[in-house]
Amino acid sequence: MAYSNPMLAEIDPVWAQITDEARAAVVDEPLLGGLIHGSVLHHDKLETALAFRFSQKLASAEMSEQILREIADSAYASDLGLGEAARADIVAVFDRDPACERFIQPVLFFKGFQAIQAYRIGHWLWTQGRKDLSYFVQMRISEAFGVDIHPAARIGKGIMIDHAHSIVIGETAVVGDNVSMLHSVTLGGTGKEHDDRHPKIENGVLIGAGAKVLGNITVGHCSRIAAGSVVLEPVPPMKTVAGVPAKIVGEAGCAQPSISMDQLLGRSS
């Protein structure tokens, strides 16, 4: 791909590709010109574009766009890892979702990506001790995107949540890097305990649609959880589990299931 700004492409290839795609999209669909200019082309870096998108999507009568924009700008300025994680998430969605043909699509249209970026700001607020405001962000994410992630949960980078409807991730859950999950996944507890009570998902795990992982258990790296499964016991690394309750049914089938996105049981690659 020939970038319109080779210097920017060298410094920040993800943002360079998004801006080039934005210019092409305005030509192809002028009716989206206002959205694309406001969300992408009026900004000089990805972080400010994401802060703007955050404020647009989560604003309500209870909290204005201006206040939310100031919160997001502060988060991105304070924690450079937020921008790094967003770039990894964009690449993850592009690589793993066959419906994603351009880097700009998650930024503008994909609620899974947008919900994760909003969660990251809520988590930053949580780490700053601003818990009530982080709860407000959690509430608005749930209302706007149908995704409920507790701001205390810890989520890595390179995350792809496909479709993203009805995702629930509890307070003490931990999700590693390069994890993929589909809609209606729950990482939940098993009762009313107050301590460490939610799952630990290691790097490279693929979680199928509708799967429920419950309790303070570990799902080992590069494992697969079949769609509709209920996981109540720890899962060793690089295994496939399926069923209610879930049992080991074989190996993971490949070195990186979260990247291959192969969800067919009994098939190896």
TrEMBL record:
Top-level enzyme category: transferase
Signal peptide as annotated in the record: none
Keyword vocabulary terms for this entry: Acyltransferase, Amino-acid biosynthesis, Repeat, Transferase
E.C. code: 2.3.1.30
Domain Serine acetyltransferase N-terminal: 14-118
One of the record's GO molecular function terms: serine O-acetyltransferase activity
The keyword Iron appears for this protein: no
InterPro entries: Hexapep, Hexapep_transf_CS, LbH_SAT, Ser_AcTrfase_N, Ser_AcTrfase_N_sf, Ser_O-AcTrfase, Serine_acetyltransferase, Trimer_LpxA-like_sf
Similarity field: Belongs to the transferase hexapeptide repeat family.
Designated name of the protein: Serine acetyltransferase
Species this chain originates from: Litoreibacter arenae DSM 19593
